[in-house]
Amino acid sequence: MALFGGRKTVFVDSDILVIGGGMAGCGATYESRYWGRDLKIVCIEKANIERSGAVAQGLYAINCYMGMQWNENQPEDHVRYARNDLMGLVREDLGYDIARHVDSTVHKFEEWGLPMMRDPKTGRYQREGKWQIMIHGESYKPIVAEAARKAATEVYNRIMVTHLLMDSSKANRVAGAVGFNVRTGDYYVFRAKAVIISAGGASHIFKPRAVGEGMGRTWYAPWSSASAYGLPIQVGAKMTQMENRIVLTRFKDGYGPVGAYFLHLKTYTQNGYGEEYESKWYDHTKALVGNYIDRHPVPTCLRNHAFLEEMKAGRGPIRMVTKEAFQDPHKEVVGWENFLGMTIGQAVVWASQNIDPKEINPELTTSEPYVMGSHATCSGAWASGPEDFAPAEYQWGYNRMMTVDGLFGAGDTIGGSAHKFSSGSFTEGRIAGKAAVKYVMEKGRDEPRVSEQEYRDLEKAIFQPLENYRVGRNEIVAGTVSPSYLLPIHGLQRLQKIMDEYVGGISTNYMTNGVLLNRGLELLAMLKEDMSRMGAEDLHQLQRVWELHHRLLAAESVTHHTLFREETRWPGYYYRGDFMKLDDQNWHCFTVSRYDRQTGKWTLEKAPVYHIID
Ligand SMILES: Cc1cc2nc3c(=O)[nH]c(=O)nc-3n(C[C@H](O)[C@H](O)[C@H](O)COP(=O)(O)OP(=O)(O)OC[C@H]3O[C@@H](n4cnc5c(N)ncnc54)[C@H](O)[C@@H]3O)c2cc1C
């Protein structure tokens, strides 16, 4: 049988194509329908939107809610907060845009049936912290997905999108996407007038702490495979702040979150000898970053920095003091429920290690780095800002449109706008959906064209790993090792090792420098050469292959950005050993990159940071 003998090609036309049905994708689908009553709106998801994305297993808190109805916070306050946490560098126009709309999103969630916790005294939403409100969130994702399902013309579950399609008649305009059904193997060609990418950030590009028997246990969802970055990078969309990876302080071995413990249970940390340690590192940190250490709250990276220095000084482990709080039965319940709602694995780890937090203060650790534009970092695509608020230099048409015509993004995809979390990502999806509808309406009959040659060439490349495996499998020399192909797990581990050792992962205590980064780029280039030799035994592995392609592109981008920024802006997230200090004079700016797929070359430039909010 010929290579494509048994495979069906399915063509789907739409006005708006949403790639990734997580929080942002559901928001984009919902809002596109609101503004585009008669438009064909299609949402594609590699899993099933019912339980897909980072919110799949539910959450215990909504981390971005202003509370404007009770005058708790204003959008400007949130911009100041995010700017402070990110050491001065955020796109204030984008952050403000989300903050001013996010409350209405949360009110919709409640209307759709999400159980909110309320303060019995005030009747307001129960606050966990200044920005967080508490929910009974096991069914958070199904509730949000239902709204998207009802709004979409069609939802295609189980489709892994591998590439975007470009307009054959106009340069730099998107025309759709291609992918395959991970269950049937059918090839899908989606033609669209506008595309919104909401395909989730990047876990697993750095070697995780949990390897061997614990492999796969990570802080962020392992299925967040960098498509939010890989897809736009491939077609030349500019990216920003990709060096701004995040490292999380988490409960050891289970990656259980600490936010509710600090904020709600009022627990605190100590070194191995029961001493407070953060204040000891004040002078040392001030010498590196200047007055940023005096900000309130202390930026997250600087708190990590004190943790890491204390460990290096030999006074670990760092522990969370839970014994006091857990004497209160209410707090004890909240402490356990916090995991049961979102990181059940941590409760299991504690049970298996004889840790009762009422009796023992559990250990903390710092995670491997992640690249997540919706969380407390700024990595992602360089996007046009809101018409009424963004400086001219940040505007080239439609809100949340990338530097590729007709290509929009939201959630993890969009850079420069940290601290969106689940509610902010849905909100940004709504913003992108509204703008995409406007784009489609204004373009009218000016539609992109798709070249058959392009999607047939892509088909060949996409399914080639199945053929590589079929042909090469009889040459296996030992176990799963073959001289003629590389399996996705081997490629992934090679990627993680390179990133870990050269780009500032856990094994170097997040330290790197120009020499290491340049060597890292050489090794990544060698891995890239080998990607044409990937083998896939089945469709599941084929999906892993394409996830690896996206991770590799994101990893390359992170490495180039880290090399370009010659300072250490976020000690505690990573260190440039050759430029250990924060350098506001030269680097109070965004880094912006572009990948040229014809030449394989990256170009980097600086872009100004505008402080719009005082
Ligand atoms: C452990 C953890 C705890 C968190 N805690 C909180 C919290 O307490 N409060 C809070 O508000 N937020 C929290 N967040 C953050 C929140 O979940 C994210 O900010 C939000 O989900 C980001 O939305 P998104 O749409 O960008 O990505 P996601 O919601 O992850 O959605 C991405 C979607 O794209 C799909 N996809 C990926 N690649 C492809 C592809 N190639 N083709 C097709 N589909 C694809 C994925 O399957 C997924 O459905 C937490 C996240 C994690 C992982």
Description of the molecule:
There is one protein chain. Helix content is 35%, strand content 15%. The chain is α/β, with parallel strands linked by helices and 614 residues long. Helix 1 (23-35) packs parallel to helix 11 (421-443) and helix 13 runs antiparallel to helix 14 (514-530). It is globular, with a radius of gyration of 23 Å. The model has no long low-confidence stretch (mean pLDDT 95). The structure holds flavin-adenine dinucleotide. Residues 19-25, 44-47, 52-55, 59-63, 160-161, 198-200, 220-221, 223-225, 227, 342, 374-375, 411-412, 421-423, 425 line the site of flavin-adenine dinucleotide. Flavin-adenine dinucleotide is lined by residues 19-25, 44-47, 52-55, 59-63, 160-161, 198-200, 220-221, 223-225, 227, 342, 374-375, 411-412, 421-423, 425.
Describe this protein with a few key phrases.
seven-stranded mixed beta sheet; single chain; alpha/beta; 15% strand; binds flavin-adenine dinucleotide; four-stranded antiparallel beta sheet; globular; 614 residues
* Rg over alpha carbons: 23 Å
Task: Name the bound molecules.
Answer: flavin-adenine dinucleotide
Count, helices:
16
- Regions with little confidence, pLDDT below 50 for 5+ residues: none
Helical content band: 25-40%
List how many beta strands DSSP finds. Answer: 19
Characterize the overall form: globular
Kindly, what is the distance between the CA atoms of the first and last residues, rounded to a whole number of angstroms?
67 Å
Mean pLDDT: 95
Work out the strand percent: 15-25%
What summary fits the major beta sheet? 7 strands, mixed
- Counting helices, strands and paired strands, the structural category is alpha/beta
